[in-house]
TrEMBL record:
This is GNAT family N-acetyltransferase. Pfam families: FemAB_like (PF04339). Gene3D superfamilies: 3.40.630.30.
Length: 391
């Protein structure tokens, strides 16, 4: 399996990259590769790798990045590996550069592949890509290589490819997905919900409609200036230093790279923007990327009306399989019908093996999985059995 390497997004053959649809998401698209390229911090480096078969056809791909320090608080290997590796190894890991495979933002990783390849071809491609990614990490002087927020199947593929390197496979987090393909309209959705939850959903929908607010669908580039203060308000409400100028720059960038894939729901009160939900369409899925609100006006379940009720009532389930909601806010999302899907991360020592304690890794995974089930399982429509989440 031959691997082609591209150091800049301008070199990347976008059509070939975007043709890798198996396991791909909007976050693996060439558009988001372009966004990440512009967001790289000073001193960081990037590489896109394409595994090609004997005919030269792309089979699978992976992004690789190197950083002097973690690019985000949720991409910090030392935090996840504490207690699983020796104190000396842990201290060394934290003092050296790090490398990330399968993306480094949006809290979702993937190794997208071509439809129709055999299991053997897929395995060969993943082995070739991970070997090249490890080589990239060595060149960067990294101490650890991490593949973050992978679905189970891809995490197992990566761990198997790095088996000789002493890969550490950890249950990490949970993403939630609204299965809108189950419902033709809001009545179908309400009938699907447990009887005890229907009154709240009806009330939240009714209160929004009585508020006089309207919702219109636009593309991101049309409304960057309008949504920047709303998103800034949400971020600052959650303790982030995130001004309107920064928000405008972020969504101008995404609009340039992904504007044709965007579908933004804008809530207005007498023509004044009071809330929004930005989504991207990729294949048969809508990815709910971010939201924002005007907190000077009453909240009438704006988020759930935009992301859940309006979308379902408009019949989006007739053309879309699911709405991907990402991480966090589990109780609220699950109680309204979102379904949980576990995500895993894989870590590999670059300069030397991590030498993690296998028993501690298994115990850590078991405790984390059981903790999620104990806290949130009762909110999952249909129930939750986390036994299948264990590795």
């Amino acid at each position: 399996m031959h691997v082609s390497s591209y150091d800049t997004v301008d070199q990347l053959p976008a059509a070939e990259w975007d043709a890798l649809t198996i396991g791909g998401t909007i976050y693996s698209s060439s558009g988001f590769v372009g966004v990440r390229a512009e967001e790289l911090p000073p001193g960081a480096s990037a590489r896109c790798l394409l595994a090609r078969d004997e005919r030269g056809a792309p089979t699978a791909g992976v992004e690789a990045y190197a950083f002097a320090r973690p690019p985000h608080a949720l991409y910090t290997p030392a935090d996840l590996l504490v207690g699983l590796i020796s104190d000396e190894r842990h201290a060394h890991l934290g003092s050296r550069p790090m490398a990330l495979g399968a993306g480094w933002s949006e809290f979702r990783g993937q190794l997208p592949g071509r439809d129709g390849v055999t299991a053997q071809e897929r395995s060969a491609a993943v082995h070739a890509l991970t070997a090249q990614t490890l080589g990239f990490a060595r060149t960067a002087g990294a101490s650890v290589l991490g593949y973050y927020y992978l679905p189970r199947a891809e995490a197992l593929e990566v761990a198997a490819a790095h088996a000789d390197d002493g890969a550490v496979l950890l249950y990490h987090d949970v993403e939630t997905v609204v299965p809108v393909e189950l419902w033709q309209d809001l009545d179908d959705y309400l009938a699907w919900l447990p009887a005890g939850r229907r009154p709240r959903a009806r009330r939240e929908r009714r209160d929004f409609e009585r508020s006089g607010r309207t919702i219109r669908e636009v593309s991101l580039p049309e409304v960057v200036k309008e949504i920047a203060p709303l998103n800034s308000a949400l971020m600052r409400r959650h303790g982030h230093d995130y001004g309107e100028e920064r928000a405008a720059a972020v969504y101008d960038r995404q609009g340039r790279h992904l504007g044709d894939r965007s579908t933004l729901l804008l809530a207005e009160d007498a023509g004044h923007p009071v809330g929004f939900a930005l989504r991207y369409r990729h294949g048969d899925t809508l990815y709910a990327r971010v939201a924002g609100f005007d907190y000077s006006v009453p909240n009438v379940a704006d988020y759930f009306n935009l992301v859940f009720y309006h979308s379902i009532a408009s019949g989006v389930g007739r053309t879309v399989r699911a709405i991907h909601l990402g991480l966090g806010t589990f109780q609220a999302k699950l109680a309204r019908g979102a379904q949980p899907h576990p995500l895993y991360s894989v870590f590999v020592g670059v300069d030397r093996p991590l030498a993690a304690d296998g028993n501690k890794v298994r115990e850590r995974n078991r405790k984390e999985v059981e903790a999620f089930g104990a806290e949130y399982g009762r909110f999952v429509v249909g129930g939750l059995n986390t036994d299948d989440w264990l590795l």
